[in-house]
Amino acid sequence: MAGTKIYYVEDDRDDAEIVAEAFAGHGYEIHVFNNPVELFHQLHLDEFLPTLIILDINLPLMNGLEALQLLKAEPKFSRIPVSLLSTSEPGVGFDGKDLYFLKPTQYHDYEKIVTRLLEHSKRAASAVSQVRRVPDDLKDHPNIMRLKAKLKEDLARLRDTKDSRS
């Protein structure tokens, strides 16, 4: 749908394809990231923030709960609705304010989850301003500057790791 950006952080390609198909069945396209570092890099580049972020828990470089904590700690990202979709229970660090779904084994159950995720996103969007532009005064916020520096380091380390595997 126009004006809707949905980000999904998932390192398992098969799971990512299933979720993408389920969203496509509702008329939505999602952007998949392999790890939270790639997500944060994109978020810092975005002029308009996504309407929903979905995180797996078991991820490389940083787990989904750590990514959730960073998202909620940064004023720039704290109002983005976030949901967890994983084979793991959220456990410690999950306050229950965000939606959590256990990955199902049947495709039709994914469709039900997508319906709930879209409802969650719409409710959250109506609770905050419809304009999701990053305020200019937050772009140079000290916490964001530190996070950007950390993300640059992590991306460089990720590139070095990929290069050494080639």
Question: How would you describe what is shown here?
Answer:
With about 170 residues, the protein is an alpha/beta fold. The mean pLDDT is about 85. The protein has one domain (about 5-165): Rossmann fold (3-Layer(aba) Sandwich), CATH 3.40.50.2300. It contains six helices and five strands. α2 packs across α6 (about 140-165). The N and C termini lie far apart (about 40 Å). The chain is globular and about 45 Å long. Helices cover about 50% and strands about 15% of the residues. This is Response regulatory domain-containing protein. InterPro entries: Bact_response_regulator, CheY-like_superfamily, Sig_transdc_resp-reg_receiver. Pfam families: Response_reg.
Instruction: Please mark out the parts with pLDDT under 50 across 5 or more consecutive residues, or reply none.
Output: none
| Cα shape | globular
When the domains are counted, the total is: 1
CA-to-CA gap between the ends? 38 Å
Fraction of helical residues:
40-55%
Radius of gyration: 16 Å
Keywords:
alpha/beta, Rossmann fold, globular
Layout of helices and strands, plus pairs?
Blueprint: E1 6-9, H1 13-24, E2 30-33, H2 36-45, E3 52-55, H3 64-73, E4 82-86, E5 99-102, H4 107-127, H5 136-139, H6 142-165
Parallel strand pairs: 1-2, 1-3, 3-4, 4-5
Concise summary:
It contains 6 helices and 5 strands. By secondary structure, it is an alpha/beta fold. The chain has a single domain (6-165), classed as Rossmann fold.
